[in-house]
Design brief:
36% of the residues lie in helices and 22% in strands. It binds one RNA strand through β5, β11, α11 and α13.
Length: 440
RNA sequence: GUGGUCGUAGCUCAGCUGGUAGAGCGUCUGGUUGUGGUCCAGAAGGUCGCGGGUUCAAGCCCCGUCGAUCACCCCA
């Protein structure tokens, strides 16, 4: 069999890289739980009409087909989910009677999109999603809380600093309304291209597509240019001289988010009035997050507030959430070697074997260490000690234990230091017990 | 999904106007008779991504395909 090639857009990690991913996921999980989020796992598939509702046109959904299905039989119409928000909305409706509201949950699962892969964009990727959903009304303070939870979760990971750009759709759309623009959705979509195609091209699009005048287009651009790390953007917007009730609402909501974030996580959040978000189910605050030095990757953590994503006709369940693109964040850093683990196996101690006749004794020694939570494996062969040390070195295992008539000796193979130890009390330094993530 | 660039040993790469494949690093063995990393000597390792075509002859030219990457689209 020829060596199989990777499948485009379906990245697989080596053990050392997977250790990093696993530890990041563990870290996120711990952080989310510290904030009281319960875990939920939803199925991989959703009915197509769920996935395609809300006019999400070209989501490149992977459709599920049974090979043996009769061509004539009714199609189940299932597709793999492309994010975790849509399945969660469905889950909330399905279980509304059994859930307590406001309901806060986190969900860490793969998602699938049939798009052409690029660095940081894959066809199968891991997403870590938190949402808070309430019944009827969702208090605005959750729009402040959610980014702070994310900030907390990302803190402590050896990643480049992140900056969250926040806007409020009411603000932008109210502003456009105040200018007399009807299709505010389309205006947002065009403004969203500002970074890519530049001010002139955006102005042209606004005039050509929406028929707005040059002064209106100019006003839209002036709004989009506004950015601030505190609430000072409010005055800047007001100076543009547009009045609209929706705009006022958006201004005060965004100011609340930015001020609270500045107080609790200085430097994390910046108001950026050009952020729009493509997904049209967002109705208030929207978030995009960039890795400093890796802005080209795009947003590594996005979300926002949605008022009507889940509705059964009688009740609506407004929510606010953010998704960390774990794969987008990690895979490029792992593949370029900027992020790695201190070793490629969990093993902390390799127990040397003097001769095959001593293997069961070595097994017993290993078991004593494991009983105290120290990941331990026994040397695969009774080769020369130099080879056994090499075996550990290759894998990054920090300690090798030798046993003989005169007791046990623990060798730190990084320093070469070797000391007699008592098996039942020896502890590795805390940082050596498990592999750690290291940057650069 | 549309278009561009790229694909040679495990890794990084060389390979002339087409003439049957090279280096460094790594790996293995020995020097080193039970304590690695240095040094020295030697060895293994390639259907040149894959398939087809042109040619006396293809790593090199042409077509297709797969993969990587970039732009568009969209977005985690």
């Amino acid at each position: 069999m020829p060596r199989p090639q990777p499948l485009s857009g379906f990245p697989e990690l080596l053990p050392r890289q997977r250790i990093v991913e696993q530890q990041v996921v563990d870290h996120l999980r711990r952080a989310f739980e510290l904030h009281g989020f319960a875990n939920v796992r939803t199925r991989a598939v959703e009915p197509m009409d769920q996935l395609l509702r809300k006019g999400e046109t070209s989501k490149e959904v992977y459709v599920l087909r049974r090979l043996q299905a009769d061509s004539g039989s009714g199609d189940a119409g299932l597709g793999l989910h492309f994010d975790l928000t849509v399945p969660f909305a469905r889950y909330v409706l399905e279980n509304a009677g059994k859930l307590q509201f406001p309901f806060r949950r986190y969900q860490i699962q793969p998602c699938w999109r049939g798009e052409r892969p690029q660095e940081g964009r894959y066809r199968e990727f891991l997403q870590a999603d938190i949402d808070i959903v309430d019944q009827g009304e969702l208090p605005a303070h959750y729009e402040v809380e959610i980014p702070l939870v994310i900030a907390d979760a990302l803190r402590g990971l050896p990643l480049p600093p992140v900056r969250m750009h926040v806007n409020n759709r009411k603000l932008s759309q109210g502003f456009y309304q105040g200018l007399g623009i009807d299709d505010t959705e389309e205006a947002l979509r065009i403004i969203d291209k500002l970074d890519k195609i530049g001010a002139e091209a955006v102005a042209k699009l606004l005039m050509d597509e929406l028929g707005v005048g040059p002064e209106q287009a100019e006003a839209c651009l002036r709004l989009a240019e506004i950015t601030s790390a505190d609430a000072s953007f409010v005055d800047e917007v007001k100076a543009l001289g547009v009045a609209n009730p929706l705009l006022e609402e958006g201004l005060s909501e965004l100011a609340a988010v930015v001020e609270a974030a500045a107080a609790e996580a200085p430097g994390l959040v910046v108001a950026d009035l050009k952020i729009a978000r493509g997904l049209d189910y967002y109705t208030g605050t929207v978030y995009e997050t960039f890795l400093e030095g890796h802005e080209g990757l795009g947003s590594v953590c996005s979300g926002g507030r949605y008022d009507t994503l889940a509705s059964d006709g009688k009740h609506t369940y407004p929510g606010v959430g953010l998704s960390i693109g774990v794969s987008r964040l990690l895979v490029p850093l792992l593949q370029s070697g900027r992020l790695t683990a201190t070793r490629e196996v969990p093993t902390c101690v390799l127990v040397a074997v003097a001769g095959e006749e001593d293997r069961s004794a070595s097994n017993a020694i290993a078991q004593r260490l494991r009983a105290r939570g120290i990941p331990t494996q026994v040397s695969p062969s009774a080769a020369k000690y130099g080879k056994q040390i090499k075996f550990a070195d290759r894998r990054g295992i920090p300690f090798v234990l030798f046993s003989g008539e005169d007791g046990h000796q623990m060798r730190d193979i990084r320093s070469g230091e070797q000391v007699p130890v008592d098996l039942d009390s020896w502890e590795p330094p805390a940082e050596d017990l498990h592999p750690r993530i290291v940057a650069e």
